[in-house]
Amino acid sequence: MFIEQVINGLTLGSIYALFALGYTMVYGILRMINFAHSEIFMVGAYIGFWVLSSLPVFLPGFLPAYFLAVFILAMLGAGLLAVVVERIAYKPLRHASRLAPLISAIGVSIFLQNLIMLTAGASSRPYPEKLPLEQFNFFGAQVSSLQIFIFGLAVLLMFILTLFISRTRLGKAMRATAENHIVAQLMGINVNTVISLTFIIGGGLGGIAGVLNGLYYGSVKYNMGFLPGIKAFTAAVLGGIGNLKGAMAGGFILGIVEAFAAGYISSENKDIFAFVILILVLLFKPAGLFGEEVPEKI
Amino acid sequence: MYRALLIALGILTGFTGCAKSPAGMKVVKIALVCPLTGDVAAMGQGMKRAAEIAVEEGNAAGRFQDIKLELAAFDDRADPKEAVNVANQIISDRQIAGVVGHLNSGCSIPASQIYSKRGLLMITSASTNPKLTLQGLKNVFRICTTDDVQGSFAANYFIDKLKITRAAVIHDKTSYGQGLAEEFKKQFEIRQGKITGFDGINIGDKDFRALLTSIKNKKPSLIYYGGMYTECGLISKQAKELGLPVPVVSGDGVFTPEFIKIGGNATEGDYASMIGIPPEKLPKAKAFIERYKAKYPGVDMQPYDTYTYEATSLIMEAIEKTGKDPAQIVDYVSRAKFSGILGETTFDAKGDTLNKTISIYRVKNGKFIYCE
User: Fold this and answer.
1) Residues B141-156: pLDDT tens digits?
2) Among A96, B89, B101, B236, who pairs with B33 as Cys (CB 3.0-4.6 Å)?
């Protein structure tokens, strides 16, 4: 039972971690909390839903390519939407007070939820089951192929992201912009491009998290982003907002805490434990678990 | 100039008046309140279709000489707060002569208190929590069987027929879900069954794996769920994914094709109890089912459709016999011996129907099949 709860927690945590990266990256660059990110996640899940239900699997052998297409489309769609939101709702407010883009983000979030509610319907829709499900025995615990897939994909994406930020020129530009906009601009970095790139990557990861969420729970709904959004934001704060490794660790910690709370203590109050951990961390380490250890924030 | 305008105005109002109702006809409305949007909207939309058919038939048959009946559908989103708002809206509309609804017991109970302020008739076709009619409200009636009957029926069925002795119970903490789960647990324990756990979940939750993992450890041979189909579908699906291949059993809140759509193949072999006997087995319901299929081709019938049709028809009969005075309508219904598609309906002193039957269904090849 212990191992099974760890596996449940890690799967849940993978989704939170991918989702949390979008919050933390935007905060790192713009020092703003992008509350519309939970809707990017939801739209990503819907893109996956539309692609999966309209595109048939041609041959069983094409399944990996098929899923690759689903994820790429969801990632691109969600990433582009995030950039459009940034251009329309945040960029004009870049030099306004810090509250203005925050409120604008909440507005975008309400708008996108209602847009999807009116176009795709208000009730939850079942996600197409196209991934063959198999059970494996892992030290006496049951693991499903979907859980392995979610965890594996999340870890792979996080690994690629870390490499991208630390090894490439664009990654260096992002780190520089996160440290100081003006100086980065003086050094010849196009800050607007970097900000767009941040939104594309963050939004794309959020979109993938949405598709994984849909596959894992088997349904999509227009307000599905709200609660996971709060959890992912919590994960970002828990790890130290603005810090990539913090968001990843925060996501996994939160997922495991939730699984243990629901499994061992009380399933109806599992959300309370996640937030109690957050309050405790903020009381004793206000910058989050990893907030102060890394000098360079992004 | 003024004259021309007045004439034009007269013609206009004359036209609109004509389009709505022939001169001299009074409009009397029957309110239908149920979730038309949200997670249980599928059931609510079914109720609306059924009530529309009933009202349409009433108007077409010319039973009401100087009255034109209208159906006013309201959406309570399965939310008790919204239910109270809608109820207040309804009692302020004097054209409304009676209410059919609500669906969820958690909505029906607070809303019934609002209707009683004006003495407005309320007949629920779907709320099964016994507490609704225990409030001592004279205006509240119920034409469906209650959860104390339903929960204990399921407990007896699984102990007698399937010799199941260990069950895990989950509920959604609502009046309906928790009430039903408690009735099941009570009877199951009276019959010497072992309840391995009694856990609440939150409506809207998607992840039950952690809870199901701990349930799996206690080795139940059945999961009983008190609540609605969305969560139950996910529970069934996730239980089987975790390697807990026991049947999930629930009540009328789950008896809908939507449950099978959400849970997918995992729901194969799951059970649901349902109030009443299958509509196909009711000789008088045949005409209604045919009309429903003709009017809404390709649409699945939902579990409370026949009940809603029946409740609407009963209100129509009360309007026909007494006019539109709320007190007289309530009085008529309390003494009514109504013969409709469900058979003979009469009410006890609390307002519950005396026509109490329960059936059990099992999912086979993606469809609910009648067992008993």
Assistant:
1) 999 988 888 999 999 9
2) B101
